[in-house]
Design brief:
Elements (H helix, E strand, L loop, with lengths): L13 H22 L4 H8 L3 H8 L7 H11 L8 H4 L13 E3 L9 E4 L10 E10 L14 E15 L2 E5 L4 E5 L4 E20 L3
Antiparallel strand pairs: 1-2, 2-3, 3-7, 4-5, 4-6, 4-7
Pfam family, one: Cupin_2
Organism: Roseobacter litoralis (strain ATCC 49566 / DSM 6996 / JCM 21268 / NBRC 15278 / OCh 149)
InterPro entries: Cro/C1-type_HTH, Cupin_2, Lambda_DNA-bd_dom_sf, RmlC-like_jellyroll, RmlC_Cupin_sf, TransReg_Diox_bact_type
Length: 209
């Protein structure tokens, strides 16, 4: 028996969208209040808004009027629009299908390491750049344990086996193993134990670097 849905289960109804906005506003109010070291009771005294109402606003349980938000903005010395900032920011997703991705020339390509970039988002609200790669090592690949770059890297082994160096330590990686490390230390596969080898490498670093 096949049941057909009359509504899009991923659609956002007006009520749900309003609830998301309330939560976003509440988080901003709480964030600015804590940033300035003001308690709920102190903010209540400054604004004339009851402690109970402030708690509802911060928890996203009520929809404050523009007059209330303006009062809060004045008390916290922030623009009224700052309460809507995170709600208005775009959120992106990149879907890369199996077999797709962009071949990238990185330092390791000199050693016949195949880099396939699985997705990329430019400027984003988090302030962090994240680059996921699918790296393939074959019989033609050379060992290359001296990669160095900024940021943090996470490796998840999918296939094959390699001995992976990070600084003074060597880690035997097998399918299912994960290695998480500072990428500014020398690192890379030191011994190709079982080929072909494939692993996901996720590199993250601040946008301003």
């Amino acid at each position: 028996m096949v049941v057909k849905l009359s509504q899009d289960p991923h659609g956002t109804r007006d009520g749900e969208r309003e609830k998301v906005l309330e939560v976003a506003i509440g988080r901003e109010v709480r964030g600015y209040r804590k940033q300035q070291g003001i308690t709920v009771a102190e903010l209540s005294a400054l604004t004339g808004i009851s402690i109970g109402m402030l708690s509802k606003i911060e928890n996203g349980n009520t929809s404050p009027s523009l007059t209330t938000l303006q009062t809060l903005a004045n008390a916290l010395s922030v623009p009224l629009t700052s309460f809507f900032r995170r709600f208005e920011e775009s959120r992106l997703a990149v879907h890369t299908r199996a077999g797709e991705g962009v071949e990238i020339d990185r330092e390791g390509t000199r050693a016949n390491h195949q880099y396939k970039l699985l997705g990329h988002i430019g400027s984003n609200a988090s302030g962090v750049m994240v680059e996921p790669y699918l790296i393939t090592l074959t019989a033609e690949s050379d060992v290359f344990p001296t990669f160095m770059h900024g940021g943090i890297e996470t490796i998840y082994m999918l296939e094959g086996e390699v001995d992976y160096r990070h600084g003074d330590d060597v880690h035997p990686l097998k399918p299912g193993d994960t290695l998480f490390f500072d990428a500014d230390a020398p690192h890379g596969p030191e011994k190709l134990v079982k080929l072909p080898a494939r692993y996901l490498a996720v590199i993250s670093y601040p946008q301003n670097t």
